[in-house]
Amino acid sequence: MSRDKVEWGIAEKSEALRPKPPVVAAASPSTVDPEARQSRKVALMAALSDGLPTLPAYVFELNAMLAASPVDLKRVGEIIRTDPSLSAQVLRLCNSAFMGFRERVSKIENAVMLVGTERLRTMVLTCSLVEYVGHRVASEDIQTFWQHCFLTAALSERIARAIALPQPEQAYLAGLLHDIGALPLLVVTSAEAKRPASVVATCGWGESVELEREHFGSDHCEIGRWIGVSWNFSPTLLEVMVKHHNPHEATEDPALVGVVAAADQFCVRRGIVLGAAPPELTEPAGNLDQAIFQACLPQLKPGEAEKLAEMLEADFLHLIQLMEFGASGLFGGGIPKNPFRE
User: In sequence order, which residues have a C-beta less than 8 Å from that of residue 302 and are 6 or more positions away?
Assistant: First the structure.
């Protein structure tokens, strides 16, 4: 069952609230070719060893600066200019039809002000990953991936602020990167799909670590940890990548893992997923949301969980309207601002 580990507490709250699992293609040892699985695992290890992008050293500094109030735009511009690729992405977005500015922008400092701190913050965190994926992944897959990550990030920070979590901007970072281990899986799957006469069973693995292990010999949580270690992520951020499906096992920062797990599940319940059909709900979403929050954030009281569910439902409806990915690509029109911060 997809995402069953994170639902451990939901069942304890009320078995009647449990939704039907997402409709996915079931995998078993008898239906997955062991040779094909081993071949994918070898390709996956090669992608991680040879093709993994490096995370710029300034990422964490810029993330903190862009979350501050007020933002030191001059210093931000100075840092961005040190990275030609990021500078080009910022100017490209600023001069795109999506932004709608009449005059062409050529200075980074002006572009920083016009793009907005939230879009810029997202670009800083994802620029190298977008370059890594390039044209190697089908556009519909990469769009649903980033849509899920952006929504999880925005809602994670919203939850963190609502429960007065210290450094709520870290919840945005954790939510945005919690599923980065899925990117190499997408790259391997896309490469396999291009082979003559290949049959790739991709449906559903994106929302089930069990299916991922059957299909690739690993899962996005393990791969995410590998990427995080190579990028020298903090133990708390690594824990989010590894434990967001079972937050009750978190030990470094259970509150942060619980926040991201709650936002992640909130999106999954509404069909914002990769490679799987939306779940069929047997109870009103509000009841399910309360059960999710109480399972992922056991420190909440029932009344607090209810208020949080109502708040996030309104936030989600507002956010989803901004999540339109244009033909010009992720940075040409697919980065919405976070209306809760600007």
Answer: 290, 294
